[in-house]
Write a structure and sequence with these properties.
Number of domains: 3
Distance between the termini: 54 Å
CATH architecture of the largest domain: Alpha-Beta Barrel
InterPro entries: Cyclic-di-GMP_PDE-like, EAL_dom, EAL_sf, GGDEF_dom, Nucleotide_cyclase, Rev_trsase/Diguanyl_cyclase
Mean pLDDT: 86
Number of strands: 21
CATH topology of the largest domain: TIM Barrel
Structural class: alpha/beta
GO molecular function, one term: cyclic-guanylate-specific phosphodiesterase activity
Strand order of the largest sheet: 1-2-3-4-5-6-7-8
Shape: flat
CATH superfamily of the largest domain: EAL domain
Protein name: EAL domain-containing protein (Putative c-di-GMP-specific phosphodiesterase class I)/GGDEF domain-containing protein
Strand content: 15-25%
Helix content: 40-55%
Largest sheet: 8 strands, mixed, barrel
């Protein structure tokens, strides 16, 4: 975290310090004050070290670091201020007897000047092995080849090198690759609200993969709440700093607060934010249109019908041929339609030497090979269904690339949507089967205790048959909202298995009250989906699965729960646990309260059989 961006604490004014208005005077009169913010190890809660930050005189216009550096920039003495700030932090760090590492901020310009003066100007006051020099984002580096020797000089002296505020301004992957920092501090933008922002989570996970490859240690900046801390801890980020862990202080604590220690050592695992909305991309990667591409020759628009016949005769596997002008497709000739015409008497003699556009579809369906699944699916719903017989032309930035068939289009859209539904339900946007299994495995690998609760809706099929799928979907979305409302988003994982089946992985201690509240809320709210006459009748008339007239009561919620004690299901796996929860659900459907729990002894007997069944 750069000194300019830091929030000032409440310092005390030095006795006898005369007021001063210039930065150079502040430096000369030693009125710069150091404060220290702890950097905490997530493994055991130990303080690894402190970032030294600078403040001006309390109550003065230069009290905040932002004001200090703004004035220094105007006065042209920013580098002098950086050097003075580092020395002030070192002197205070020594005087306080702080343990661990001291993190100091430097711009590229100030570091280059430090190297030219000699590292002894800094490290004569402190053991270099206790120092981590952070390259701030404030200034760009003109030539990394000239800057690399500066980093080498730091390391030769014994200090470590860090990139500050990674992911913002000048802190780029280019720097990471070429300078190979020992420490990378992730910018606070990516950390704040990471517990609820899937894209930030994925961005940090990408940084984590690169850190593992490069050997750098990651420090997450800007941690301001427990939820973000737990997500970072459970995804494997090693350390962090922020107001939740400790604010900058002139006399920092040697240990973190008990509330912070309790959060770091919490037994429950975090629920990771999921990218659940289907963007139309294939989860397996690659554009679906590219996978449908059939490489086939095209004919120029000046070609004759005899040329088309010769091509179809030579290549009997072709279902169609595209007609192009230059590289741009202008028409499509369907093989079957063309050959049927030529089978008629005298058609070859009459039309063979005429232009091929005579029997072509001059408005073929064009699909750009980068087209998304949703755009392709729109074709399936359009009024123009000629592509089912003719096929279509696949283009690359408008240029002819090849052909595709109607059959392959239907198959591609279906396969991608089925695959996408495994990751996220397209109706409720809740995580699907793959994220559900992944979270169960995370719970088991951490030996976390939890309650797996399988949720089902009684009498949903008769309701769906009577009122239609549209109204049925509204009931499912209502059920999803009710379940989401009773979950603690930081502890309880809610997934949509499919249809009217949901799964909650509760870590909340109040799981039973939450499940009961969901049942009560849903059962009362579901009545509004019925017509007044059906509400008065207490249900609807319909037919059972054998076609017999039957009266069905209102849609209600049933929840079957299984308790997995800490370490009690690790050897059985996610599928066995989900199957056991499904058994509890079937029992709950017969229970008046709608809630059944399979406790430790019975689950211990059933799990081995399910795991091997």
């Amino acid at each position: 975290m750069s000194a300019r961006a830091s929030t000032p604490s409440a310092p005390t004014h030095h006795e006898g310090a005369p007021p001063s208005t210039g930065i150079e005077a502040l430096i000369a009169q030693r009125q710069l004050r150091a404060v220290f913010q702890p950097i905490v190890d997530f493994d055991d809660g130990a303080i690894l070290g402190y970032e030294g930050l600078i403040r001006g005189p309390a109550g003065s216009p230069f009290e905040s670091p932002a004001a200090l550096f703004a004035q220094a920039s105007e006065a042209g003495c920013t580098t002098a201020l950086e050097h003075a700030a580092a020395l002030a932090c070192i002197d205070a760090f020594n005087a306080l007897g702080c343990h661990g590492k001291l993190f100091l901020n430097f711009s590229a310009t100030a570091l280059c000047q430090l190297a030219s003066m000699g590292m002894d100007t800094l490290f004569a006051r402190i053991d270099a092995h206790r120092v981590v020099i952070e390259l701030t984002e404030q200034s760009a580096i003109a030539d990394l080849r000239d800057f690399a020797p500066v980093v080498a000089a730091l390391r030769a002296a014994g200090a470590q090198f860090a990139l500050d505020d990674y992911g913002s301004a000048n802190a780029s992957m280019n720097l990471w690759v070429q300078l190979q920092p020992d420490v990378v501090k992730i910018d606070r933008y990516f950390i704040q609200d990471i517990a609820n922002t899937a894209l930030k989570f994925e961005a940090v996970r990408a940084m984590q993969h690169f850190a593992q490859a490069s050997g750098a240690r990651l420090v997450a900046e800007g941690i301001e709440n427990e939820a973000d801390l737990l997500v970072l801890r459970d995804m494997g980020i090693e350390s962090g700093q922020g107001f939740f862990l400790g604010r900058p202080q002139a006399q920092p604590r040697a240990r973190i607060d008990e509330r912070v220690r309790a959060a770091i050592s919490a037994q429950h695992i975090a629920v990771f934010p999921e990218l659940t909305r289907n963007s139309g991309a294939s989860p397996g990667g690659g554009a679906p249109a590219q996978k449908m591409l059939v490489h086939a020759p095209a004919l120029p628009r000046r070609a004759t019908n005899n040329d088309v016949l010769e091509l179809f005769t030579r290549m009997p596997e072709l279902h169609a041929v595209a007609v192009v002008e230059g590289e741009t497709p202008v028409a499509l000739i369907n093989r079957r339609a063309f050959m049927d015409r030529y089978a008629l008497p005298y058609h070859r003699e009459l039309f063979g030497k005429k232009a091929c556009l005579q029997f072509a579809n001059a408005q073929p369906v064009l699909i750009e090979q980068t087209m998304s699944v949703e755009q392709m699916a729109a074709l399936l719903a359009s009024d123009d269904q000629r592509y089912l017989a003719d096929g279509f032309v696949i283009t690359d930035n408008g240029r002819y690339a090849g052909l595709g068939t109607g059959e392959s289009l239907v198959r591609a859209v279906t396969e991608v949507r089925i695959q996408a539904a495994r990751y996220a339900n397209p109706l409720t946007f809740l995580p699907g089967n793959i994220p559900i299994s992944s979270h169960i495995e995370r719970l088991l690998s951490h030996d976390a205790g939890f309650h797996a609760c399988y949720v089902d809706l009684n009498q949903f099929k008769p309701f769906n048959d009577q009122y239609g799928y549209w109204q049925g979907d509204e009931v499912l979305k209502f059920a999803a909202q009710v379940l989401a409302d009773v979950c603690d988003a930081t502890r309880d994982f809610l997934g949509h298995v499919g249809g009217d089946d949901f799964l909650i992985l509760f870590q909340s201690e109040t799981w039973r009250e939450r499940a009961s509240r969901a049942i009560e809320t849903f059962n009362a709210g579901a009545l509004r989906f019925y017509a007044p006459v059906d509400r008065l009748s207490g249900g609807i008339h319909g037919e059972d699965r054998q076609g017999h007239p039957t009266f069905f009561g209102f849609v209600t919620m049933a929840i079957g729960c299984v308790h997995i004690a800490p370490g009690g299901g690790a050897q059985h796996g996610s599928e066995a646990i989900a199957s056991l929860a499904a058994i509890a659900k079937r029992r709950a459907k017969q229970e008046a309260t709608g809630l059944v729990v399979i406790e430790g002894g019975e689950s211990a007997e059933l799990l081995p059989a399910l795991a091997h069944g």
